[in-house]
Design goal:
The structure is a homodimer of 198-residue chains.
Chain A (H helix, E strand, L loop, with lengths): L1 E7 L20 H12 L9 E7 L3 E6 L10 H13 L10 E4 L2 E4 L3 H9 L3 E11 L9 E6 L6 H10 L2 E4 L7 H14 L6
Helix pairs in contact in A: 1-2, 1-5
Chain lengths: 198, 198
């Protein structure tokens, strides 16, 4: 399974935000919505073997489970609405127990480190870094976990945690890309690797 | 220069659409907005050597000029607002003369074939096709023009026109991707090609 964990530093932790200002008042939730789009959508289907974890303000994590998603659309607004619905169920997320808000979408009362602890087991953890190895030089892992940040860099604490945990530190090219574009390139690398005759 | 021409079959040709329903009443304008995002945005800058042509309903073409863009933001809604502003100037686009609506954004009274005629000169025209050659096997052109369709396939007429004009028929991987993801992969291919030591 391919997993993507994206840290939303300014993302909302309550559902009282407008879908009309995702890039402003909603703390750049548009970035996280595009990451969900890039992680799941193929031209004519959804990647079922993908799981996405959106860390919201280090308080909650919203999980998207590819094999269970039913109402995901490509546009930012409708994905933001799913995140808002998840936040409406935040009081039902007690301890580390998830609360499902819509099919395949659930919320957990977990910040970045707790989520990383919970999902990293059994995965190959890849972090993106300007000085990382070219991803094309890396042996494609069976169960990669890509950890990305939103429009901000990782904080010093997040970075040191990742440096301690990362199995691979990679870069996807000579240019530094937005998180959602990085996810698209990572998928393409994993799709094509070993398919030289595709 | 890298150019991307995206055909919006259901896209609006008048400015009387709501920014609140881009994926519905606005004819999947969200798809075209994500294509603009993928074509121009790097993590910390805009790709200035890029030009995007959005064909709207085979009536108008809105051009985004990377070197002149001033007000482009990554979210779908604000990009749709720029398209709507361009459509507000559609009456100023007389004959084939462009009308600039905001810095780097202009509208022309040209459909798909006219736009293709106008921009293909001196470019290497690449079309995306499931049976195309893997893009990694293609010599990266100096001035590629990628022609893509929105959420619909090309019409028979568009396809035959492209088959007659295309210099290369390529695919970006074993999976068929959305147009905006295809643009991201194409950029990454052009960015990394020849940069094995990036």
């Amino acid at each position: 399974m391919r997993q993507f964990l994206i840290v939303g530093h300014d993302a909302p932790t309550t559902p009282d935000f407008s879908l009309d200002d995702l890039a402003g008042a909603a703390g750049r939730l548009d970035v996280l919505c595009r990451c969900v789009n890039s992680a799941f959508f193929l031209s004519h289907s959804i990647r079922e073997d993908v799981r996405v974890h959106l860390v919201l303000g280090d308080e909650f994590t919203v999980r998207f489970e590819g094999s269970e998603l039913r109402r995901l659309n490509p546009d930012e607004r409708s994905t933001a609405a799913l995140v808002r619905q998840a936040l409406e169920h935040r009081e039902d997320a007690i301890g580390h127990m998830p609360a499902e808000s819509t099919p395949g979408v659930s919320i957990r009362r977990m910040g970045f480190e707790e989520t990383l602890d919970a999902v990293a087991d059994g995965t190959t953890l890849l972090t993106l870094h300007e000085d990382g190895d070219p991803i094309v030089d890396v042996e494609p892992p069976a169960d990669p976990l890509f950890v990305l940040s939103d429009h901000h860099d990782f904080s010093a604490a997040e970075r040191s945690l990742l440096d301690a945990r990362a199995d691979e530190r990679v870069r996807v090219g000579p240019e530094v890309l937005h998180a959602d574009h990085t996810i698209t390139v990572a998928h393409n690398f994993l799709d094509t690797e070993g398919f030289t005759a595709y």
